[in-house]
Amino acid sequence: MLSFQPSLKLEKALKRLQGQLATVSSRLASVSADEAKYLNRCALISNVGASTRIENAVLTDAEVEWVDTTLSADGRTTAFEAHKAFILDKLSKDRERSVEEVIGCREVLTTVYLQAKDFVPLTEMVIRGLHYDLLKFSPQAAQYAGAYKSVPNRVISKSHATGEERTVLDPAPPGVINNMAMADLVAWYNTSLHEVPWPLLSATEFVFRFLAIHPFQDGNGRIGRALFLLALLQSDDDYLVGLMPYVALDRRIEQNRAQYYSVLHAASKGIFQADPSRYHYEPLVWFFLKMLEGALEDVERYRQRYTMLQKLSETASVVLQTFKSRPEQRLRVNEIVEATAVPRRTIQYVLKTLTDQGFVQRLGQGAGVRYQLVF
To answer: Averaged over 142-156, what is the pLDDT?
Structure first.
């Protein structure tokens, strides 16, 4: 059972959310397999990009998409080591850590999408396995992969102006307390999964308690957001389970990152509690509810984008592919002409079409104008 009692106002909002889920689900009932695959990939790319940028990685969604395309050529995520030099040469070696974080997050979210129902009941071994996959591509963090923390991992905020430090989160200490807290959390989750009528409530408590424990030395935020998705995919709500593969929830969280951290801190005042009923969950539920409502609205935007893609001319598709193969670059018209062998006048017409439809953005004016891919 939940460690808190939702207010009547919150329950009313959850009922409203249920209606929105039903509406969006009905709109997607007749989508083709190709469109469904496109929507899922959009959600994956957006979630990977957003979740890693929340933790200060720097790859754009367009760059994440290019990395995903590069690694999907042979259908194996483990192909990263074979493609690593090529990827880093393209995106610059000073972004190596961001690339490694993207690869790990991509692997974790892909696993969650494909195997969520296989992880019922949830086990600590599964959580630790996901954490291993998250960090295994990062040499600096690989030593922590899949293992609970062995030294304290307080989260400290430092003012660049004054040098003053403050503790943002004082989580469970390593060792017995950390391990017992995780065992209790997983047992509670498996018991509560099918007892709580609103999946968003149990998912919120589960993930917040996980973040308050902060069981791993590194990667807790990214794994926490993946576990939130997992909890929703494991729920009994058919609408929610059917829609979450197409929902870029982390994109919305990234857009509201300051509020996200503020609400997380307010729920616990930054202090781990052995008694989970001492946390204040409801403001965090409201936050996730609003993020989910916004992310559901984004699904229609992705559907419109898919429709526009199907209507692009062959020439426009060729030009768009040129941008996708160079996501890190801002291209001049002459560079596109050289890459495609398409006449300059035709390129200018195509660029106007792609700009108007939001596939690329125009930067600058006159002779210095350049164009860049928009995911």
So the answer is: 93
